[in-house]
Amino acid sequence: MKTVTGFASATIGNVACGFDVLGFAIKEPGDEVILTLHEESSSESPVSIKTIHGDGGALPRDPKKNTSSFVVLKFLEYLRNHKGIDFQGHIDLELKKNLPLSSGMGSSAASAAAALIAANELLGGPCTKMELVHFAIEGERVACGSAHADNAAPAMLGNFILIRSYNPLDLITIPPPDQLYCTLAHPHIELRTAYARSVLPRSISLKTATEQWGNVGALISGLLTSDYELIGRALVDVIAEPKRATLIPGFYQVKEAALGAGALGCSIAGSGPSIFAFSSSAATAEKAGTAMRNAFLDIDEHLEADIWVSPVCREGARIL
Ligand SMILES: Nc1ncnc2c1ncn2[C@@H]1O[C@H](COP(=O)(O)OP(=O)(O)O)[C@@H](O)[C@H]1O
Ligand SMILES: N[C@@H](CCOP(=O)(O)O)C(=O)O
């Protein structure tokens, strides 16, 4: 038997104005997937979920419904159809779910990326990370009904990832500025990605579109030139945030607190309920975290929130 452990960290999709086309990874926390290879096939499915820790029993144990096992099945299918590798053994999967579910932290994508990096290592590394990312994106379809890449791609590849095109998939890696820090505040409530997508408008005005893509261009420019003031100025979302803010108790108070503590900008992490802020120093990022946590506590709901401060992860999914 051979055992391999894969790790993939939390990601923040959208990054305010880049709905479905921009995301980045932070260093911690993340999901772990432990795969054990058995040379002999022992069941109908080549992948079995043996244990899931930390999900409170919420996640599917059916290998075709959990993102971690589903993407390994897609990976094995690809090997058979495109690499001439017809896997005849069996893989036992153990998932350590360190990321909160429906949190806005890309938890399903982290499970998928961790499983894929481990499966690829287990079978001798037949694929590149750029090949693996296709399966991680498909895992999002299982998780929330849509194959958005802004969590899956940075979970696998690290850095900021801009999705220029979904068909064909065209991903652009943007390394982070050296002094960029992310503060992530996760209130202890759940907001399902699929529901948070259902509240979005199906069409927008030309004025709104123009404002949004102007900020996307400015944000990319700020990231590439390490222009921290421009990054903050461009962190404006006029499409998703106005609709989703109402789903997050205290959103505007938390945003004001982060900016008041010196953060460059602040918006919803992915589809929420987590909220992220950028700062140009670790000290300011820590101050913003304290302010965001206190703001969540001060609202009528008195929400507890977990806070993480992290630079952007440049490595992506890795073997532990
Ligand atoms: N292995 C998995 N890890 C996390 N979520 C999963 C997994 N498999 C299926 N899901 C489902 O994915 C949906 C999206 O949740 P999740 O990805 O945790 O949200 P977010 O991306 O906002 O953190 C949830 O309904 C969750 O139950
Ligand atoms: N672009 C997606 C991002 C979802 O991120 P998640 O971490 O909440 O799953 C969206 O905004 O729906």
TrEMBL record:
Name of protein: Homoserine kinase
Domain GHMP kinase N-terminal: 72-158
Pathway linked to the protein: Amino-acid biosynthesis; L-threonine biosynthesis; L-threonine from L-aspartate: step 4/5
GO biological process: threonine biosynthetic process
Role description: Catalyzes the ATP-dependent phosphorylation of L-homoserine to L-homoserine phosphate.
GHMP kinase C-terminal domain boundaries: 220-296
Family according to the record: Belongs to the GHMP kinase family. Homoserine kinase subfamily.
Family annotation (PROSITE patterns): GHMP_KINASES_ATP (PS00627)
EC supergroup of this enzyme: transferase
Xref: InterPro entries: GHMP_kinase_C_dom, GHMP_kinase_C_sf, GHMP_kinase_N_dom, GHMP_knse_ATP-bd_CS, Homoserine_kinase, Ribosomal_Su5_D2-typ_SF, Ribsml_uS5_D2-typ_fold_subgr
EC number(s) reported in the record: 2.7.1.39
Listed Pfam families: GHMP_kinases_C, GHMP_kinases_N
Any one GO molecular function term: homoserine kinase activity
